[in-house]
Design a protein that fits this description.
α2 links the parallel β1 and β2. The chain has 14 helices and 13 strands. α1 packs antiparallel against α2. The strands form four sheets. A four-stranded parallel beta sheet has the order 7-2-1-13, with helices on one face. The chain is globular. With 375 residues, it is α/β, with parallel strands linked by helices. Helix content is 30%, strand content 13%. The longest helix is centred in the middle third of the chain and has 15 residues.
Length: 375
C-alpha cells in the first residue's frame, strides 16, 4: 500500500514535467559506478512501467523505479533542432495528441522509414519547443484502457530530463538505477544529418556515465552504429534481434551484406557480436519458441551459445495481458485487457539462465526474482 501511494505521489509530481529540469543534473561531474548488474535477472522497465502508465513518460519511468526496476529503457529519436527525445518511433500519431493540434496539420506526411512506408507526424519535422506542446496518449488503448485514462497528462520527455529523474530517484530510493536507451532508426536519422550516437555518448559523459562500470546499456537493432560506438565509448552495448530471424538489420540491407538476425544468432554469429557488444537482446522466441497452438515449446541453445561467446542475454518483451501471453498462461477472460499468469511465463524463461529481461510490468518481474541488495 505504501509503495502504491508513493508511486501515485511521484506520478502526480512529474505529470506536468515542471519539476524536472532539462539542464544537466547538478551532480553530473561525479562518475557513476554500477552495482545494478549484480542483480539476476536484471529487470529492465520496457518504456518505463508501460503496462500501467502511457509509455515513455516521466510517470512511467518514475513508477517503474518505485516498483524496483534495475534499469529504465527509453527509446530515443531526434527533433529537427537536434534534441534526443523518448518515443518508440519517430512517428507521433500513435503516442501523442498531435492529431488534435491544427497548427501542425501541414506536418502530416508519408515517409519511408527503414524500408516501410509510414504516414503521420514525425519528430524530425518538429523543434523541441513544438514537441513540448504535445501530450502523450496510450499506444494500445484497447489492451490498456486504464492507461488511456491518463491521456493528456504527460509531456514528451527529453533524454536529459530522464537522466535527471533517475538521478533524483536514486537519492530517494537509496540505490543505483540504470539507463538503457535504444537508438531508433539510426541509418535513417544519419541520412537526415541528425545522427544520435555521438550526442548520446556526450550526454552520458556530461552526466558522469563513463566506462563499462557505469549503469548503462546502449542498444540498437542495427549493427554498424554499435560497432562505431565501440570505438568512441566503453559504455556497455547490446545488440537487439528482430522477432523474425530472416529479417536483416536495416543498415545491412543498405550495405547489401546479406547478414540476417538468424546468422547473428548462430554460435559463430554470436562470437562476432561479442567483438563489439556486451550483451544481446533477442525476441523471446529465440530462447523458447512457441508451438503452433501458441504454447511454449522447448528451449533452444541460444542462452548457452551466447554465454559461451561471453555475452549476457536480455530477452524482450514480457507483458501480462492475455493477448501477449502463451496459451497456457492466459486467463479465461476473453477480453484483450485481461491479465493472465505472467509469473508462469517468467519462471519458464528464468529457468533457461537469462541474465535480464524487458517487461512492461516490472513489478511482477521484481516480485518473482525476489529482493536484490544493491551495494
Amino acid at each position: 500500500m505504501a509503495t502504491t501511494f508513493r508511486a501515485w505521489l511521484l506520478l502526480s509530481a512529474v505529470g506536468s514535467l515542471t519539476l524536472v529540469s532539462s539542464a544537466p543534473a547538478a551532480i553530473h561531474t561525479t562518475k557513476v559506478k554500477n552495482s545494478v548488474d549484480k542483480c539476476k535477472p536484471l529487470v529492465i522497465a520496457h518504456r518505463g512501467a508501460s503496462g500501467y502508465v502511457p509509455e515513455h513518460t516521466l510517470g512511467a519511468y518514475a513508477l517503474a523505479i518505485t516498483m524496483g526496476a534495475d534499469y529504465v529503457e527509453p527509446d530515443l529519436v531526434m527533433t529537427r533542432d537536434g534534441h534526443l527525445v523518448a518515443r518508440h518511433d519517430n512517428e507521433l500519431g500513435l503516442t501523442t495528441d498531435v492529431a488534435t493540434h491544427p497548427e501542425f496539420s501541414d506536418r502530416f506526411k508519408t515517409k519511408t522509414i527503414d524500408g516501410h512506408e509510414m504516414t503521420g507526424w514525425f519528430t524530425e519535422d518538429f523543434t523541441l519547443a513544438e514537441i513540448k506542446t504535445l501530450r502523450a496518449i496510450e499506444r494500445i488503448p484497447e489492451t490498456r484502457p486504464g492507461n488511456a485514462r491518463m491521456n493528456g497528462i504527460f509531456q514528451i520527455p527529453t533524454f536529459q530530463e530522464i537522466i535527471n529523474l533517475v538521478k533524483s530517484l536514486e537519492i530517494s530510493q537509496q540505490r543505483p538505477i540504470g539507463l538503457y536507451p535504444e537508438i531508433k532508426h539510426s541509418t535513417y536519422f544519419q541520412g537526415l544529418n541528425l545522427p544520435m550516437e555521438d550526442l548520446l555518448v556526450e550526454t552520458f559523459r556530461k552526466n558522469g556515465y563513463i566506462g563499462s562500470s557505469a549503469p548503462v546499456y546502449i542498444q540498437s537493432f542495427e549493427v554498424n552504429n554499435l560497432k562505431y560506438l565501440k570505438t568512441i565509448t566503453d559504455l556497455k552495448l547490446l545488440q537487439l534481434y528482430e522477432s523474425n530471424p530472416s529479417d536483416q538489420p536495416f543498415d545491412q540491407v543498405v550495405a547489401e551484406t546479406g547478414l540476417t538476425y538468424a546468422d547473428m544468432a548462430m554460435p559463430d554469429g554470436l562470437k562476432e557480436v561479442a567483438k563489439y557488444a556486451a550483451a544481446v537482446g533477442p525476441d523471446k522466441s529465440y530462447i523458447i519458441p512457441r508451438n503452433q497452438d501458441n504454447t511454449l515449446g522447448e528451449p533452444t541453445s541460444f542462452v548457452q551459445d551466447a554465454h559461451a561467446a561471453g555475452l549476457k542475454v536480455h530477452p524482450y518483451t514480457f507483458r501480462a495481458e492475455n493477448t501477449f501471453l502463451p496459451t497456457e498462461f492466459r486467463s479465461k477472460d476473453p477480453s484483450k485487457a485481461a491479465i493472465g499468469d505472467l509469473y508462469g511465463e517468467l519462471r519458464a524463461f528464468i529457468a533457461t539462465g537469462i541474465d535480464g529481461l524487458f517487461s512492461d510490468q516490472p513489478d511482477k518481474a521484481v516480485a518473482i526474482r525476489g529482493n536484490c541488495m544493491h551495494s
